User: Fold SigE family RNA polymerase sigma factor from Saccharopolyspora hirsuta.
Amino acid sequence: MAGDSRGVERSVEQTLGHLRTLDSAAIDASAPPLTLEDLYRQQRMRMVRLAILLVDDPATAEDVVQEAFTGLYRNWSGLRDARAAIGYLRTAVVNGSRSVLRRRKTAREYQPPHQADARSAESLAMLTAEHQAVVAALAKLPRRQREVLVLRYYGNLSEAEIAEATGVSRGTVKSTASRALDALQKLMGG
Assistant:
C-alpha cells in the first residue's frame, strides 16, 4: 500500500509540476506588474487553473477568481508592492475555493424538514375510511419508516432496491419495515 501511495504522490507531483512550469513560462517574472490591469492580464489564467484544480468546475473557478480580483481592487491601495498582490490573489483564490466547497457540502447534506403534502379532496373521497386511516398513520411515522413502507408497498421495490434507494443495508430495511408495521398497528388502534 505504501508503494501505491508513493506512486500516486509521484504522479500528482509530476502533473502539477508540469502545470506550474507551463504557467511560469507564460509569465515574465523579472518584470513585476505595475497596475491591476497588468496583474489581471498576467495572472488571471494562472489563478483560474489553480481554482479549477481546487473546485473542479471551470465556471465556479472563474467566479472565484473574479471575486479575488474584486477584493484585490478594493485593497489595492493597502498593498506594500505589486509582488504582494500575487500572494494576496493566491490566498483569496484558495479561501474562495474553500468557501465554495463548504457551501457545496452543506447543500448536499441539507435535508429540508418533511412537510406532509395536502391531499386533494377528491383523492381522500375515493379512499375508504380504512385507507384514510392508513394514510393518516403513515404521515405520523418517522421519515425512514415511512420511506421504507412507501417504497415497499407503493413502489413495489425489493429489499435490495429499497436499501440502495435509501442508502441503508438490507437488514436495516427489514428491521425498519417491521418496526414501521408495528408502529402503524399501534397508531391505528389494533
